[in-house]
Amino acid sequence: MMVLVNGKKRVIDSNFGIIDIVKSFKVEKKYLAVGLNGEFVPKQLYSEIKLKEGDEIEVVSPHPGG
Questions:
Q1: Which of 1, 2, 13, 59 registers the highest number of CB atoms within 10 A of its CB?
Q2: Measured CA distances, 54 to 8, 23, 30, 31 (Å)
Q3: Spans of all domains in the chain
Q4: d(Cα 1, Cα 26) in Å, to the nearest integer?
Q5: Angle at 41 between CA 45 and CA 34, to 5 degrees
Q6: Nearest-CA neighbor of 12 among 39, 46, 52?
Q7: What is the pTM of this model?
Q8: Residue 40: in which H helix or E strand, if any?
Q9: DSSP-assigned letter for residue 43
Q10: Chain mean pLDDT for the chain
Q11: What is the structure's pLDDT at 59?
Q12: Beta sheet of 33-36, edge-to-edge order
């Protein structure tokens, strides 16, 4: 199925969840924030939320500097 991750189309398996997207970034999840369809996703829900066709996921990490 097709989802958007940080504005880019991505084909994923139908059983993918937020946690699978987070793992694909190869950064500890404590350093990431995730939004799903414009809503913040608490870290404790990463393993529970499964993705659906057309979902829009934003994954951000802090960057030093200003």
A1: 59
A2: 12, 20, 26, 25
A3: 16-51
A4: 22
A5: 115
A6: 52
A7: 0.86
A8: strand 39-41
A9: G
A10: 91
A11: 94
A12: 8-11, 2-5, 56-60, 33-36, 39-41
Q: What is the pLDDT of residues 25-55, one digit of tens each?
A: 887 778 889 999 999 999 999 999 999 999 9
- Split at pLDDT 50, 70, 90, the class of 66 is low
Pairwise CA distance, residues 21 & 16, whole Å:
8
d(CA 37, CA 66): 27
Give the CA angle between residues 4, 66, 28 to the nearest 5°.
50
Nearest to 17 by CA among 41, 40, 49: 49
Evaluate whether 59 touches 5 at the Cβ level (below 8 Å).
yes
Taking the C-alpha atoms of residue 31 and residue 9, their distance in angstroms, rounded to an integer, is 23
Counted residue by residue, the chain has a size of 66
